[in-house]
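Data card: per-record layout.
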Amino acid sequence: MQRWYLVTVLFALMSITSSCSAEPKVVISTREGREAVFQVEVADTPAKRELGLQYRRELAADRGMIFLFPAPSLQSFWMKNTPLPLDMIFIGSDRKIAGIVEQTVPFSLDSRSVPAPSQFVLEINGGLSKRLGIRAGDSVRFEGIAPQSVKE
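The structure for this 152-residue chain is written out next.
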């Protein structure tokens, strides 16, 4: 009897641990009813936002990085030390896509932005936005991400 109790507790702890360690995700719902799901690294501190995806030589198709900012603003990015072409998806505080910069030029020091305030920016592989039908106005949902924990 005690053995079954121990096994039950062990499985319960494993279940809790696996649900807590689930990778953060960004889910984009297109107006056509499709969903694009990206497992993301979270850039929620100034140091993480500054480093971003620099020096990365590859990025899986279902991966990305979400940049969290304390408040909506006109965000601007560059591609310094970034060898991958990326799509930058700018997201407003209302969790709607404000605009997309597609196929950024690797290593470029040119500033890239959209003309609308955004509080979040998702970087994914270049060309994926178009291929997946992701457009301005699409809805975004965060899973396992706490936007209120952003460090200034």
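Known properties of this structure: Residues 6 and 12 are 10 Å apart (CA to CA). The helical segments are 2-20, 46-51, 128-132.

See the next section for split statistics.
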